[in-house]
Design a protein that fits this description.
The structure holds two protein chains of two kinds. In chain A, strands 1, 2, 3, 4, 5, 6, 7, 8, 9 and 10 form a ten-stranded mixed sheet that branches. Chain A contains 18 helices and ten strands. Helix content of chain A is 49%, strand content 13%. In chain A, helix 1 (3-19) packs across helix 18, helix 3 runs parallel beside helix 18 and helix 9 (194-205) crosses helix 14. Chain A is an alpha/beta fold. In chain A, strand 5 (185-187), helix 9 and strand 6 form a beta-alpha-beta unit. Chain A has three domains: 16-54 and 402-480, no CATH class; 65-154 and 284-355, Bordetella uptake gene, domain 1 (D-Maltodextrin-Binding Protein, domain 2); 156-280, D-Maltodextrin-Binding Protein, domain 2, CATH 3.40.190.10. In chain B, helix 4 (66-72) crosses helix 5 (86-92), helix 14 (247-262) packs parallel to helix 16 and helix 20 crosses helix 21. Chain B is globular. Chain B has one domain (2-489). By secondary structure, chain B is mostly helical. Chain B has helices spanning 7-25, 31-42, 47-64, 66-72, 86-92, 96-130, 134-146, 148-151, 156-171, 184-189, 193-196, 200-218, 236-245, 247-262, 268-282, 294-318, 324-335, 342-346, 350-380, 385-402, 407-425, 431-454, 459-463, 465-489. The chains are: A alpha/beta, B mainly alpha. At the A-B interface, helix 1, helix 5, helix 6, strand 6 and helix 10 of A face helix 1, helix 2, helix 9, helix 11 and helix 12 of B.
């Protein structure tokens, strides 16, 4: 079994080589380097992408559909995205591939989803943060930048404490905050993140100043839960599925769930409303399409998605993960988002976050860069003073000149290659680049061309076919 | 136990390990990505087969990252950046194969030690890890950063410059504590991508991979030559002798690696560097580190595989993932109707035993898989240099792109290729820069969240017991050298 590992790249190269062995004869007339691209393009379209051209234009989907997930692999949103990729693939018979675009507290992925080509071949996964991040000035995006397709999940936020914590109910906990403001430390996400705003809204509804709890920013629910269990925090605010196993094992306790009714998945957890605080904060997940996607595609996807949400497979998946099911499609979803947007605007303003964030004790985001700039200038200054008395670089001037030219040429070639990828796509740019460089570095022209084509084939097989990595296709929209 | 030897388990397991070799040896492809791809497939398989595939991939990928780091000076995973020091120097001397064989066996031993500690003392170790809060992580990060004073050959000032540059590069993007863009001007002229900052992996691929292409251009050798010198074969018995000679170092590195891996805020990369710095500090051959000595190969590789095992400790004991791989695994367990967490562990159920057995057997399967991986890679290196370099460029582009499906990362990679080349030609070492990039964020974030938590009070930073302990180590590291020198003179 293991020997196949060793031979794998070699055998791939072998078959690819046979496939392309007629290349030199075909290409005999084309000598000029500029035409290398043309030939390779023909190869590329004829061999690699034949499966795309096969079922023609018009029918949707006619190529791989990308599902943009704004959160990293392993998280709940990623799991949901991968479920949809599988389910939609089964329905449409075309590959649906999850692409994680993380960072900027969800801003990067939401942006990428909203600004993709509106042809139905990109589906954006959108989450709760869409309604809060533009209020926090992280992004300009709102739900209005999408064609809202489907909400499939809603999980209320909850106040979670250690099993041995002194508070038995939400009111006891709130009283503890009232009597000793600034004592209780909480986390669940970064400052201004979804769960921070949820607990801010809860305190506001209970008429307690929002800053009477210290919010310690941690990058997510998992690290916050560990800090809570280690006794470094007093409570965590996040959704219930995120602490399902600790809840089951009796390490943690839920004081209140921030929803109007008890949830189906956890019917014995009390709500905030029944404990006298009327406040609802729901984390939700949904699918959306870039603004301007043709309405017949939206309609087609909506029908298929609703068919999936009605299936047993969907319900089993959601239940096993502890995700609450809440289905709203197109217009109903848009109305929900509009209401959410308003609700969070009030909280952000009440929390004073719209004026920018500052927390007691935090030296602020600018402290470290300034410290480093000062440190660097001292160190570089010191180094340049010291270096004047010991000349450690000795090169003959003639070789430096020639070397600099060669290095500049390589840097230029690499830059042109990378920019070309973003224009004409990975495959064409790479065949051209590899063929030209190996040819310039002394290989025979047909060997060079063969090398480029084989290399791209290997990369394509390994990455696109095996690893489902979508390689850049280029802004010019060439079919190969 | 026997059900693990079922062909329906062992087959996917071995395929996954082969896959892990490829993933690990390709910069930009991570074990996280591999595991995320395996999980949906594994739902169609027996849960044991799924777990075996996931565990198999995560352990092999870390070792395989050392293969290109040793031969081409391009680390395949962030945890193998330390192998670009002594491992690569050995390869330049034509001892690449024996260095990698040593690396492989140490990976296996490191993994075994890590898994054994996981089986024996997971609960106390996890409880210990819970004691780590913000200020403890801050000091741990400072300890790691101070290693840059040891891992940089030549001028200490240049090492310091590199470390500070690394931290500065890491500050671009959104401030993790307040959630606002740190350089509003930069982000408003750039794209939304700049808000994300520079991802570690494209920067690393640039600094090593693309910079290596420039360095090759600089050398005046023929383009049809091979990239790596001819090598004498490596013998297993010699490798065993070397390991026996350094047995304490192997064990100590593995234990350090497990502990660091068990901390949810740290990982295999920090474990590798920490153990390398520690080995150099305590070795009689301290000044030869970085010039291609065996101890410099042994220390990081024993630690990083142990750290992979360590990461399972908080995941299994508390049901809270410490890193991305365990996060995916915990998600998968839910689908298998296994609820991870203390009950599962306390009951010592069949599932936990299966996980332990799989993790142990994986270490032994790593030997043939890794060996064939080394052989396959050497085979590829027989191709002429012009071809290898083109392939390095292409794979660097794909790797940088694949990490986040963004052309921005490809531009970043290219830019850092130039930066890496310029820095090295000015004799600024890259190792401290990598350390700064890995640890800068941790140190800053933990200091600031600690201060928020204490309301701006600095005292807990110096009075908490574990903080005191780490401050003592820190002082010891810097003072021990000069004192020893003085004692010798006296």
């Amino acid at each position: 079994m293991n020997s196949s590992v060793a031979n794998f790249p070699a055998s791939v190269a072998g078959t690819a080589g046979r496939e392309f062995c007629s290349a030199p004869r075909l290409a005999v007339r084309f000598r000029a380097a500029s035409r290398v691209m043309l030939i390779s393009s023909v190869f590329m379209s004829a061999t690699l992408y034949s499966d795309h051209s096969a079922d023609a234009w018009g029918k949707y989907p006619n190529k791989t559909v990308t599902i943009v997930c704004p959160w990293s692999p392993g998280g709940g949103t990623d799991r949901v995205s991968r479920f949809w990729a599988e389910a939609l693939k089964d329905e449409f018979g075309q590959p649906f591939v999850v692409v994680n675009r993380t960072g900027g507290a969800g801003a990067v992925g939401h942006f990428a989803g909203a600004h993709a080509a509106p042809d139905g071949h990109t589906i954006a996964v959108i989450t709760f943060e869409l309604c809060t991040m533009h209020r926090m000035k992280i992004s300009h995006l709102t739900y209005r930048d999408y064609e809202c397709l489907l909400q499939m999940n809603a999980d209320p936020a909850a106040i979670i404490v250690r099993a041995d914590a002194p508070w038995q109910s939400l009111q006891e906990w709130l009283d503890a905050i009232r009597t000793a403001p600034g004592k209780i430390k909480m986390s669940g996400t970064a400052t201004g993140g979804a769960w921070d705003l949820a607990r801010a809204g809860l305190l506001r509804a209970a008429e307690i100043p929002i800053d009477s709890v210290v919010w310690v920013p941690h990058p997510g629910a998992a690290p916050s839960v560990l800090e809570l269990m280690g006794g470094h925090l007093d409570a965590v605010c996040c959704s219930v599925p995120e602490i399902a196993s600790q809840l089951e094992s009796g390490q943690l306790r839920v004081l209140a769930v921030m929803s109007n009714e008890r949830t189906v998945a956890y019917p014995n957890l009390p709500t905030a409303k029944e404990q006298g605080v009327s406040w609802e904060a729901v984390g939700w997940r949904g699918l959306a399409l870039p603004k301007g996607t043709p309405s017949e595609i939206v309609e087609q996807l909506k029908e298929t998605c609703l068919k999936i949400t009605a299936s047993k497979k969907f319900k089993t998946f959601m239940n096993k993960n502890g995700f609450g099911i809440k289905v709203r499609a197109t217009d109903e979803f848009t109305d929900f988002l509009e209401a959410q947007d308003k609700q969070w605007q009030e909280v952000v303003e009440a929390a004073g976050y719209s004026q920018g964030l500052s927390t007691v004790g935090d030296p602020g985001p600018q402290a470290l860069p300034w410290l480093l700039l000062i440190g660097l200038s001292i160190a570089i200054g010191w180094e340049s003073v010291r270096r004047t008395d010991s000349a450690d670089e000795q090169h003959s001037s003639s070789s430096i000149g020639g070397m600099a030219v060669r290095l500049a040429l390589i840097a230029l070639a690499l830059t042109v290659y990378v920019v070309a990828i973003s224009w004409i796509g990975f495959a064409s740019a790479t065949v051209t680049f590899v063929s030209l460089t190996t040819w310039r570095l002394g290989a025979k022209w047909w060997v060079a061309l063969l090398t480029g084509t084989i290399l791209v084939t290997i990369v394509w097989l390994l990455f696109v076919k095996l690893l489902e990595v979508q390689l850049p296709s280029g802004s010019l929209g060439l079919p190969f | 136990m026997y059900e693990l030897l079922d062909p329906n388990v062992i087959g996917p397991w071995i395929i996954a390990m082969a896959f892990g070799i490829f993933i690990g040896a390709t910069p930009g492809l991570t074990a996280t990505m591999a595991v995320a791809l395996i999980v949906p497939i594994s739902f169609h398989l027996d849960p044991n087969a799924g777990l075996a595939m996931i565990i198999g991939v995560s352990f092999t990928a870390i070792f395989a990252g050392d293969i290109p780091a040793t031969y081409l000076r391009i680390p395949g995973t962030p945890a193998s950046a330390a192998a670009t020091l002594d491992g690569h120097e050995l390869a330049k001397k034509g001892k690449g194969q024996s260095a990698l064989l040593l690396d492989l066996f140490c990976s296996c031993i490191g993994g075994l030690v890590g898994v054994t500690l996981l089986i024996l003392i997971a609960s106390p170790l996890a409880k210990f890890a819970l004691k780590f809060s913000d200020f403890e992580y801050f000091w741990l990060g400072v300890l790691g950063l101070s290693m840059s004073a040891f891992v940089s050959k030549g001028s200490t000032i240049k090492g310091l410059i590199a470390a500070m540059l690394g931290i500065l590069i890491g500050t671009v993007g959104m401030d993790v504590v307040t959630g606002v863009p740190r350089y509003p001007l930069l982000e408003s002229i750039g794209s939304v991508e700049l808000m994300r900052g520079f991802d570690f992996i494209p920067v690393m691929i640039g600094l090593f991979g693309i910079a290596e292409v420039f360095r090759n251009v600089q050398q005046d050798t023929s383009w049809s030559d091979k990239c790596v010198p001819d090598e004498a074969g490596a013998s297993v018995s010699e490798t065993f002798l070397t390991i026996w000679k350094h047995k304490l170092l192997v064990l100590r590195s593995a234990v350090i690696g497990t502990f660091i891996g068990a901390l949810p805020g740290a990982g295999a990369d920090i474990a590798a560097w920490g153990s390398y710095g520690m080995a150099q500090k305590t070795s009689p051959n301290a000044k030869d580190f970085g010039s291609g000595i065996e101890e410099g190969v042994i220390a990081p590789t024993s630690a990083n595989n142990a750290a992979v095992a360590g990461a399972w400790i908080p995941a299994l004991v508390f049901g809270v993932p410490g890193d991305a791989v365990t996060a995916i695994v915990l998600g998968a367990m839910l689908m298998y109707n296994i609820t991870p967490g203390p009950q599962l562990f306390a009951e010592n159920s069949a599932q936990v035993q299966a996980i332990f057995s799989i993790a142990l057997i994986t270490q032994f399967l790593l030997l043939p898989a890794g060996f064939l991986g080394i052989k396959a890679f050497r085979l590829l290196l027989k191709l002429p240099r012009r071809l290898i370099l083109s392939a390095v460029v292409v794979f660097s582009v794909v790797g940088a792109y694949a990490i986040n499906n963004s052309m921005f990362d490809v531009y970043v990679m290219l830019a850092f290729g130039v930066v890496g080349f310029v820095l090295e030609s000015k004799k600024v070492p890259l190792a401290p820069l990598i350390l700064g990039l890995i640890l800068g964020e941790l140190v800053e974030r933990k200091l600031r969240t600690g201060l928020i938590s204490s309301g701006g009070d600095l005292t807990p930073m110096f009075t908490r017991p574990l903080c005191l302990f780490m401050i003592a180590i820190l002082i010891g590291m810097f003072v021990s050298g000069p004192i020893a020198k003085k004692l010798k003179r006296a």
